[in-house]
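B., you asked whether I could sanity-check this one before it goes into the benchmark set. Here's the sequence:
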Amino acid sequence: MERTKRPLLLLFCFLAALSASVQPVEAMRSTATQMKRRVFCPTPTSIMLHSADAVYGMKWLVRTIEKNGLQTLTYRQVSSLWKQGLCPPANTILVSLDDLGTGWLRKEFRDMIRVFTDKGFVLTLGVVTGTEESPQSETIWDYLKDLDAQGVEIASHSARHSLLEKLNEEDLRFESEESYRMLCQRLGRCPVTFILPFGRGSESKQVMSVLKEEYTNIVSIQAPKVFGTQPLLFKRIPLVKQENNPLEPKLGTPYFMQTQTYNPSIKPPKQPYRTEPQ
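And here's what the prediction gave me:
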């Protein structure tokens, strides 16, 4: 009886050991498969706006989008597609508006956003949240929450709009985590996109290391023309190019003319324009 049990016991131990050794191999195969499936996409047409672009610039952009059959998406939507192994459509345009505050908000920002939302378009808003100690407007937070419900992406633009690459790690984490926490708490949904203040910081290992702990997408002026590694790094440029006379901004060559999504049918307006009076 004992002689019969011993071979069975040895066989059981062998099979258990074999099973344990196979599991890491399967995990490695799974990881290798995921790496093979990693998707690299050309960065869509990506434009950043500020209050200086005014309603005139926003209306021109809307006409351009409609004329050329472009589709507005947010960075959140693009990264969601990427996670599914998909690139955004070739006619995608990403539009972002920076420097919205939570204690005070320029009228120009509301007017510019309305130009887009009235057409059913979406865009990404870079919000400088301030801190719990700084003045906060419940009216503005309600406004941002309503925009979020309409499909407008509310992104972090840091807590105090600091130049991140010049900060020590403690202050850098505060800029990232305080803004993230406030947006999560006030909106009921956490941000996935961080728009770098001044468009700088993507070349700093410390900045990118800290930001990727909270955010999926990083938006910068300095970035490749493709995205596909985490955190996803998106390149964008201004709609307006300042000429020699800073008081008379001109619409510069749009991003359409400078990326892989080049569309020769899209031309900037010829005449210069001034920022509309407040």
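One thing to flag: The CA atoms of residues 192 and 201 lie 17 Å apart. Otherwise nothing jumped out at me.
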